[in-house]
Design brief:
It contains 16 helices and 9 strands. With 332 residues, the chain is α+β, with helices and mostly antiparallel strands.
Length: 332
């Protein structure tokens, strides 16, 4: 039902939306919003008004939302259907509770309704000739000074009150763009870089997939790595900072080698496997007899020679560097 309404509703409402709205719209993405902020930095907008809407999807006022939907939709049957969807209730511990406010997250209709609700905000900011970028409920207003930012922040917070949308006062602030984090990215100078938090999440997931005690087949492990790394680069490949990219490859390969060593835990097995991979008998015996931990051994010359980069690639390991280069230079 939601998908059917969305497919009919979106062609009607989307052409009227602001060009500064990039979320859940055809031919637009989070990357467009991030680049819009970057373009502002290049033009001297070195401060950002970063306003955090507190639990936006939980706090949308149904009456205000339906009033705005009716600007585009005059069919009462469709309006009634959307109203039922909003007030359908939720099941908590087997008990149905009424939903008096908010838009259910996760459904195909919710993003479109979010854009409808925040279209008034877009129009307000445009009428003031402010430079901004919005992706769903995340938006940033670019300004040239801290004083200007504080004034605009007060104005916008006041306007959001008319929409009955509370803000998170602790997270809403005016900051230099070098301290801004927007949609998983930060800005170093005029360059877009993935945020430290995004990188930490990436490493956490890689550690899970390359956990040496995860008892899955190698084909499945490589499949999960390929899916996750490819998906992550499809989004975070927007980062223009190349230096950490090869380091991630080194780190991932070391963790993979560690997993193989863990699997070859017996001395004879480890020696036999390394020799079969072209490692000299002397070095293989040295690794086999070593009491060092798996992660330390994974960095030794013998292990790197046997489980070399080409061999790992042949097994199915994808390269972060190759994916990043392909993202930035798709035509080679």
């Amino acid at each position: 039902m939601q998908q059917a309404i969305t497919q009919c509703l979106q062609p009607i409402i989307d052409p009227d939306f602001s060009d500064h709205s990039h979320g859940f719209r055809p031919l637009r993405s989070a990357h467009h919003a991030v680049k819009a902020v970057q373009n502002g930095i290049k033009q001297g907008y070195v401060y950002a008004v970063d306003i955090d809407l507190s639990k936006f999807f939980d706090n949308v006022d149904h009456d205000l939302l339906m009033n705005r939907v009716s600007k585009w939709v005059d069919d009462k049957r469709v309006l009634a259907l959307i109203g039922k969807y909003l007030r359908a209730g939720v099941s908590i511990n087997g008990k149905v509770e009424d939903t008096l406010r908010g838009v259910p997250q996760g459904g195909p209709l919710s993003p479109s309704l979010a854009n409808v609700m925040l279209d008034d905000l877009d129009r307000y900011l445009e009428s003031k000739h402010y430079r901004f970028a919005r992706y769903a409920d995340d938006f940033v207003i670019s300004v040239k000074s801290f004083t200007e930012g504080e004034r605009i922040k007060a104005e916008v917070v006041g306007f959001l009150e008319t929409l009955k949308l509370p803000i998170n006062t602790e997270k809403s602030q005016v900051v230099p763009v070098r301290k801004l984090s927007f949609l998983g990215f930060v800005f170093k100078g005029k360059k877009i870089v993935w945020s430290p938090k995004s990188l930490a999440n990436f490493k956490h997931r890689i550690r899970e997939i390359t956990g040496r005690s995860w008892g899955v087949s190698w084909s499945y492990r490589y499949l999960q790595l390929r899916r996750y790394i490819s998906g992550w680069i499809n989004y975070f490949g927007l980062s223009e900072f190349y230096r950490p990219v090869p380091e991630l490859d080194h780190w991932i390969r070391r963790r993979i080698r560690m997993c193989y060593l863990k699997q070859w835990c017996r001395m004879k097995t480890r020696i036999r496997k390394l020799i079969s991979l072209g490692v000299s008998t002397k070095l293989a015996i040295y690794i086999g007899l070593s009491s060092k931990g798996y992660y330390r051994l994974a960095k030794t010359k013998a292990v790197q020679m046997g489980l070399n980069n080409d061999w790992l690639k042949a097994q199915g390991l994808v390269s972060v560097k190759e994916q990043w280069v392909k993202f930035h230079y798709p035509n080679g």
